Amino acid sequence: MTGLARGYWCECWTEDLSGDQPPALRAAFDAYSAPQADRWVAVTLRTISPALDSDASDVAWAWLYEGRIATRRALLRFESCTVTITQASTRITWTIRPVLFVPLAHRQGAELPACAHDFKPHATD
User: Fold this and answer.
1) pLDDT score of 125 more than 60
2) Average pLDDT of the segment spanning 14-42
3) From residue 90, how far is each of 15, 103, 114 by CA, in Å?
4) Half-sphere exposure of 88 (CA within 13 A, CB side)
5) Biggest alpha carbon–alpha carbon distance for the chain
6) Which residues contact 36 (CB under 8 A, 6 or more apart)?
7) Is 49 exposed, middle or buried (0-12, 13-18, 19+ CB in 10 A)?
8) Does pLDDT of 92 surpass 90?
9) Whole-angstrom Cα distance, residue 105 to residue 108?
């Protein structure tokens, strides 16, 4: 990649509604097209739907059949989208945000400073 690339930053957060814990990031994904972004949410919802209670399952399948179309249209307009379901006392939220990906510098062919070769990872217990 030599220039800025349009894409989507996708995240899945969970929140325990019965406790004082802050929301927790469970997964993140970089998508380079609207179909790839909404497919990430769709695959996850289909995977977890058998374990959901009937209300949460209804919300999940409603998004899969109807909400996904609106999500895809919004993403194609480069707008942010959110999908949320609540299972018992857990709220699960997927967010998809339009982003510009910045290319990173490649290290191939670059001379590293001498100190880079002195680094020794610490052993873990």
Assistant:
1) no
2) 93
3) 6, 36, 50
4) 5
5) 60
6) 8
7) middle
8) yes
9) 9
Could you tell me the two tokens for 65? 């059949």
Residue with tokens 């910045």: 102
Angle made by CA atoms 54, 60, 61, in degrees to the nearest 5: 90
Mean pLDDT of all residues in 94-100: 96
**pTM: predicted TM-score of the whole model, two decimal places:** 0.78
Q: Scanning the structure block, which residue is given the tokens 């480069």? A: 78
Inter-helix orientation angle 34-48/68-76, to 10°: 160
For the beta sheet containing 24-31, the strands, ordered from the edge strand earlier in sequence to the opposite edge, are: 24-31, 5-16, 90-101, 81-87
What's the pLDDT at 102? 85
CA angle 58, 61, 64 (to 5 degrees): 155
